[in-house]
Design a protein that fits this description.
Blueprint (H helix, E strand, L loop, with lengths): L8 E5 L6 E5 L8 E6 L6 E6 L5 E5 L1
The structure holds zinc ion (ZN).
């Protein structure tokens, strides 16, 4: 297995509660994309925009 195949994690900063948590990084061929994700700390719904370069922005939904 190439190291590229290993799922990476990225750190998300929740815009609701300010806490950070990790999500599995979408593979490069699926970027850019938007993910619906619930904050692991406060469980509120987030919309995560993952850019082609792997940077991520968390928006309130
Ligand atoms: Zn939160």
């Amino acid at each position: 297995m190439r190291s590229d195949d290993i799922d990476k994690e990225m750190e998300i900063s929740c815009p609701y509660c300010g806490e950070t948590f990790l999500i599995v990084d979408p593979p490069p061929n699926e970027r850019p994309c938007t993910l619906d994700y619930d904050c692991e700390i406060c469980c509120r719904p987030l919309e995560l925009t993952v850019e082609a370069d792997g940077s991520v922005v968390a928006n309130t939904n």
